[in-house]
Design goal:
This protein is an all-alpha fold and about 230 residues long. It contains nine helices and no strands.
Length: about 230
């Protein structure tokens, strides 16, 4: 087996035996004490036994009663209290930490100047961030406004095209209606013309037009060669 492993096992066994011995001694001390009177504060001792403040207080009590313990050597082994260096080091208190921190701080004037400088740097950085944020917001708003203008322009163009198309269709319809009205008026004049008042060539042409109008509208048959107006005139 590796020597390091053997050394580790030996140390572990030694620590285990040491802790077991301490536990046995504590149980023996508690048992001896309870033979004289019941120990009602054992649960408190179980909680405070490893607290640094409690250990420091017990070490102080040990040093104050050291002379009394030396006069009774027969009870020293049973009632001995561990020394201060045997307890865990007590953590530094808040007040002591503040005192130590203040003692290591630079003079007040230099400290104030440094704090003021840091504060100015922080304020300047915050102002720069705020300016950049506002510029970004302005750029975003300009981009949104530009996009909205483009959309409005496209919408207006689409509406103009639609209106132009409707207007063209309406103009064409009006022109068609006007043409139909003009044709109807002209044909009406031809149909109601008195053939007896016309010269023979003009009378024949008007009669022919009257027959074409009647055939187109389905009033007279298509095989008719001359209109009734022509026969009446003859």
């Amino acid at each position: 087996m590796c020597p390091a492993v053997l050394l580790l096992l030996w140390c572990s066994c030694d620590i285990y035996m040491y802790l077991t011995l301490i536990y046995v001694q504590i149980n023996d001390a508690v048992r001896i004490f309870q033979e004289k009177a019941p120990w009602k504060l054992q649960h408190c001792w179980e909680k405070l036994r490893f607290e640094p403040k409690w250990n420091a207080k017990m070490a102080k009590a040990h040093t104050s009663t050291k002379s009394q313990k030396t006069t009774h050597p027969e009870t020293e082994g049973e009632n001995s209290v561990p020394l201060a260096d045997q307890f865990p080091a007590r953590p530094e208190g808040r007040d002591n930490a503040k005192k130590r921190k203040n003692s290591t701080m630079p003079p007040q004037s230099e400290s104030s100047a440094a704090v003021e400088m840091l504060q100015k740097i922080h304020e300047r950085a915050e102002q720069t961030k705020e300016t950049e944020r506002k510029q970004k917001e302005e750029l975003v708003n300009l981009a949104k406004a530009k996009f909205q203008l483009l959309q409005d322009n496209m919408k207006m163009k689409a509406e103009d095209r639609e209106w132009s198309r409707h207007l063209t269709e309406e103009q064409l319809r009006i022109k068609k209606v006007q043409a139909e009205a003009s044709l109807f008026q002209t044909e009406s004049q031809i149909m109601f013309t008195d053939l007896n008042t016309l010269l023979p060539p003009i009378r024949d042409w008007v009669a022919k037009k009257q027959m074409e109008i009647l055939v187109r509208d389905g009033v007279a048959p298509a095989n008719s060669n001359s209109g009734p107006s022509t026969s009446n005139a003859k």
